[in-house]
Amino acid sequence: MRDDSMTHVAIIDDEREVCTFLEHFLTSKGFTVKVAYSGEQSDLLMDGPPFQLAMIDVKLPDTNGFAILKKLKEKQPNCKVIIMTGFSTVKTAIEAIKLGANDYIEKPFDDLDQLEALIDEMITHDASIVQSEANRLAGEVGFITGQNEEMNHLLTIAYKIAKKNINVLIQGETGTGKEVLAKFIHQASCRADQTFIGVNCGALSESLLESELFGHEKGAFTGATQLRKGLFELANSGTLFLDEIAEASPAIQVKLLRVLETREFMRVGSEKVFRTNARIVAASHVNLDEAVREKKFRQDLLYRLNVVKLEILPLRKRIDDISTLLSHFLEKYDAQHITFTTEAMRLLETYDWPGNIRELVNVVTRAITLSEGETTQITKDYLPCYIQNTNKKEYEEKEVKRSFSESIINHEKSRTNPYFSDLKKYLDNWNAELLFYWQSDQAVPLEVITEKIKELEDVTGKAFIKKALNSTLGNRKEAADLLKITPRQLRYLFKEKKHSPL
């Protein structure tokens, strides 16, 4: 039970009506309230008795909320902070959260219950408990931050904004865990009991993506034999994850912009207007600011998506977390009895991980499977040859496998990758490995088999792309024609697969 008479709250805002309302509201709850109408007056408050909570406006006549926040955190680091903002400055409030504010609320305060709940949460909840809950939820969905300070800060920000009904943009290299972070945001939000649906915007043609997003009526086009609801409709009260949003065509971008602006859409072949309340979390391995400058992405759409931008570090910039990630994966596969030798760990920690977390998962799965029944200690011999035969310095010097598009056009680069040098040999090895799993008396996790199937699709697809490019002397348009795909789909394959370890 807290003693409200000992709870001191500071209100810093130049709008006297707001201050008067909050002072009356908080005093009625038994709090001791002090008010400042400027930055100069706020300095005097900070030099007095400590506050448990401060409510700070973003804009003041002689300073701004950021400057006050910085001073307050220096003088009273344990004081909780709520940033007050108008709707047009929500992005500014998010920046304040990144700088240490605990939350924000929009003015005017239309929902007094929401205001009271937020204030009570700030007063009663210990920061360590909130962080512990964020870590627990992250562990459940598989978003492992390890000891990296920047990743843990990212998790804190994601947890804070999860309950806000705002769009989120996640940027990061392929394989860093953008979809896992999107699932964390969904699970930490008030929509956790609703649907989470994801779609890769680069994996579908324009017409298929339009139908997937917005749905279609029966007979809308050839093959539309029945009505189909789109993802905006299916995720109406939940979260819609738009992966690789940069790959959406200009026409799809226009339609997405309209939905984000009006919350309205029409199915393909229909004139009826539907509404959606889906929360949008978008992701891209492409820098969308650069894509806007290059006229490849709409600036107005980016503005709508980028209310909050979260950037995930590549694995090579958080190498110290390798051991934590390994422990998580071993526990996930019920293989805690397995350990990695010092030499194997050294190789893992000096490799550059172009495929990031996704590649690490594949390597661990492979090692567990190959060592089954033989040993409980993973040596370097259970690691892929390209990890055994390289180290970080060599990787940086040679840029091996840095760009898939270059590697399949450049014969010398493709020759350094054993998976491309002899497709028949790869297929023979793949077949032998699958037969080994089938004939083994030991239980084989189904995930291992599905990963091998995905690997087969990836490697053979690349081999046929290479063959098409070789036959057209590198002409991508002609190669796309030979493969019966669009140049846009071929471009997506280049970008999506360029960091593949295969």
From TrEMBL:
Residues that bear 4-aspartylphosphate: D57
Domain Response regulatory: 8-122
GO molecular function: ATP binding; sequence-specific DNA binding
Residue ranges of every copy of the Sigma-54 factor interaction domain listed in the record: 144-369
Keywords: ATP-binding, Nucleotide-binding, Phosphoprotein, Transcription, Transcription regulation
Keyword flag Transcription regulation: yes
Chain coiled-coil ranges: none
UniProt xrefs under SMART domains: AAA, REC
UniProt cross-references to SUPFAM superfamilies, sorted A to Z: CheY-like, P-loop containing nucleoside triphosphate hydrolases
Annotated transmembrane regions: none
An individual GO BP term: regulation of DNA-templated transcription
UniProt xrefs under PANTHER family: SIGMA L-DEPENDENT TRANSCRIPTIONAL REGULATOR YPLP-RELATED (PTHR32071:SF119), TRANSCRIPTIONAL REGULATORY PROTEIN (PTHR32071)
Protein name listed in UniProt: Two component sigma-54 specific Fis family transcriptional regulator
Source organism (scientific name): Schinkia azotoformans LMG 9581
Source taxonomy: Bacteria, Bacillati, Bacillota, Bacilli, Bacillales
